[in-house]
Write a structure and sequence with these properties.
It is built from 14 helices and 34 strands. By secondary structure, it is an alpha+beta fold. The strands form six sheets. An eight-stranded antiparallel beta barrel has the order 10-11-12-13-14-15-16-17. It has an eight-stranded antiparallel sheet with strand order 19-18-25-24-23-22-21-20, with no helix packed on it. Strands 3-2-1-9-8-7 form a six-stranded antiparallel sheet, sandwiched between helices. Strand 8 and strand 9 form a beta hairpin. Mean pLDDT is 94; it is low at 1-17.
């Protein structure tokens, strides 16, 4: 019984790894804050397991694991348990590039095409993208060309080059910083080209081994072992280990302690591997022209970091470096105070704000060391609205955030700004009801729900609606961008208003999300010349829709064409067909065959019924439903089995090799 109790306690609370009693007595607030914050996150749902570590002057002074890394095996999280770290991986390719710069193999202001001549886009401005622009997210590249996987499914470098060949830039290279994964994949390719070895081998030799990061490498799906699994909620299904093939953008796994060792390398008195010149570069701001127009500080303008300075800490005289990372299954955050030689790292199995957790632990540790930490911002009561000045009225009009389109109307005398949804068009009864109401005072507009402030700015010919000092960060971040009404609007050659499209090129071992499998496109007479298909598009020709939101991440242009008489659409790496491609499934035995090109097969239930499946060994079957614009996954052969009831008009998705047959039995 004693052994059983001890094992349960180990699974429940993990292991405190650096002398529990000594740490508790020396830093009770730090340990208590970490435990309370992480347990609250775990018990709130969505997160299965966690690990945290704190380093002070090169020594791990606190490290603890929480929850079960593997429920079936009864294995808890300890200091050697690896988690996928997502975009925190970006700092490893940043260091790799600087190591090559230290060797004289490139300069940061070299054009990327100088080292990757095969990198081409239909937009000639791509030749002006420099290596530096890949790291402060100012390249103008559209977004993210990769999918999370459970097994290797092709060459991500070749896919990126193929997709970019038909794409335009969102803005002039260097103009503004907008989060972009693809720039880091290009940087990974530059490292391989100049070093003459694989990216992972370069990291192992030049970073992992010198820093004694013995538990860091490829993602857990590629390098299993002592890793934390992901379990979904609320069913608790155990998914296969997640694999991320774009190593530079987000494909590494690590432990909290190893991340602290990495963070220590950015400290001049620490175990550094960069030259003094490169260390200075990676600690410095990397500003763009856009930030000059902001009232406050800009995020992302640093060499790979989310930020190299955090406003509230900068006001107290501290520099803070931070990089977060999120995949579908994991969340990570790394914080470094170089002058104070403090590093904090947190990783989670599940989706939560690693930034909020890490920051709470960092602040507690600073207070216990006698260092002033930022105070919480005082709660603001709603302002009394004041009349809107004439010079602000020019900012009224149609705006987008990339996902939707809005109309911004001023009520000048009342001091109100009302925001209405335009696209996708709301129901008729909601058309004249504002989505948001802002109160004006002294050039700022306060959100009546959250109490946050916004302002308008003009940069060259573009108008933006900007959030001032966003919570948790304190940066000014554009939330909306004005779009222009075309003089001669063009329509797409296919009717796309309220039209359902089905994904045709999802591979069997992809992490599949419903909203990338069944997509409904829209147009509206209130906004001629524009369409909504995954994101907001400006129609330039009957076959092509350009990115309308040039100030927001992960946007894709639209290419329409026809195959075998059926309209198809390509957006970035995703291929879609009209819903008519789905065959009607009736009672009894039905067969869905993968076509010779390997495109996904689809079926649609004519009647509700109890359904079972037979599939090829490596094939994948999923069932989706769509209601009120929301797509839900009802079944996934990756984690589900047996018979299930599905209602009328449920869609059956199949993925496999060309010619393979999937059988669907309905009764």
């Amino acid at each position: 019984m004693v052994w059983i109790v001890c094992w349960i306690l180990l699974i429940a609370s993990g292991a405190s790894l650096c002398g529990a009693e000594e740490i508790l007595s020396a830093y009770p607030e730090t340990v208590g804050t970490a435990r309370e914050a992480i347990w609250k996150t775990l018990t709130s749902g969505g997160v299965n397991a966690a690990t945290v570590a704190v380093m002070d002057h090169g020594e791990i002074i606190y490290s603890e694991g929480f929850g079960a890394a593997d429920r079936w095996a009864g294995r808890g999280v300890d200091q050697e348990t690896r988690f996928n770290i997502g975009s925190t991986s970006k700092m490893f390719v940043a260091v790799a590039i600087l190591l090559l710069r230290d060797e004289g193999k490139l300069t940061l202001d070299d054009p990327v095409v100088q080292h990757l001549p095969e990198f081409s886009m239909r937009d000639p401005r791509h030749r002006d993208i420099t290596v530096r622009m890949l790291f402060n997210h100012s390249s103008g590249l559209p977004g993210s060309t990769f999918e999370f996987e459970f097994a290797p499914q092709g060459d991500p470098h070749a896919l990126l080059l193929e997709v970019l060949e038909g794409e335009d830039l969102k803005h002039n290279p260097g103009a503004m910083s907008i989060y972009c994964n693809d720039g880091f994949t290009l940087a990974e390719m530059v490292v391989e080209r100049l070093s003459g070895e694989s990216f992972l081998d370069f990291l192992k030799e030049r970073i992992f081994e010198p820093l004694e990061m013995h538990h860091t490498g490829a993602s857990v799906g590629e390098k299993p072992g002592k890793v934390a699994f992901f379990y979904d909620t609320p069913e608790g299904k155990k998914y296969p280990l997640e694999r991320v093939s774009v190593y530079g953008a987000g494909g590494l796994s690590s432990t909290a302690e190893d991340l602290c060792r990495f963070g220590e390398s950015f400290i001049s008195e620490g175990n550094k591997i960069l030259s003094d010149l490169s260390l200075k570069e990676i600690l410095a701001l990397q500003p763009t022209a856009f930030s000059e127009a902001l009232r406050g500080d800009a995020i992302l303008e640093s060499f790979g970091w989310d930020y190299a300075f955090l406003p509230a800490y900068k006001d107290l005289g501290y520099q803070v470096l931070a990089k977060s990372g999120g995949t579908f299954f994991y969340s990570t955050n790394l914080q470094v105070l170089p002058a104070e030689r403090i590093v904090v790292a947190v990783s989670l199995s599940g989706r939560a704000s690693g930034e909020a957790l890490t920051r709470a632990i960092l602040d507690a540790f600073m207070r216990e060391k006698g260092l002033p930490a930022p105070e919480k911002e005082p709660v603001q009561k709603p302002v009394e609205p004041r009349e809107i000045p004439e010079d602000l009225l020019r900012f009224g009009g149609i705006y987008t955030n990339g996902e939707k389109v809005f109309r911004l109307n001023f009520e000048q005398e009342e001091g109100l700004l009302k925001v209405y949804t335009v696209l996708p068009a709301p129901p008729v009864e909601e058309k004249n009801s504002p989505l948001f109401v802002f109160l004006h005072r002294d050039g700022l507009f306060q959100d009546t729900h959250e109490g946050e402030n916004y302002y308008f700015l003009q940069k060259e010919e573009e108008h933006y609606f900007v959030a001032e000092k966003v919570p948790l960060y304190g940066f000014d971040i554009p939330k909306l961008q004005k779009i222009k009404m075309p003089e001669n609007p063009v329509s797409l050659e296919v009717e796309v208003n309220d039209t359902l499209w089905l994904r045709r090129n999802a591979l069997p071992m992809t992490q599949i999300l419903g909203d990338l499998m069944m997509v409904r496109s829209f147009t509206t007479s209130d906004l001629p010349g524009y369409a909504h298909f995954l994101n907001v598009l400006r129609v330039e020709t009957p076959e092509f829709g350009a990115i309308a939101a040039t100030a927001f991440r992960d946007q894709m242009s639209l290419h329409l064409f026809s195959k075998d008489g059926i309209p198809q659409a390509r957006l970035g790496m995703c291929l879609f067909s009209l819903e008519s491609v789905a065959q009607e499934l009736s009672l009894g035995e039905n067969r869905i065959r993968i076509n010779p090109e390997g495109e996904n097969g689809w079926g649609r239930l004519a009647l509700g019924g109890i359904v079972s499946f037979e599939r090829p060994e490596k094939g994948r079957i999923m069932v989706f439903s769509e209601e009120a614009g929301e797509v839900a996954c009802l079944y996934d052969s990756l984690v589900d089995e047996g018979e299930h009831y599905f209602s009328e008009k449920s869609f059956i998705f199949t993925s496999g090799n060309p010619g393979e047959v999937f059988e669907v039995f309905v009764r």
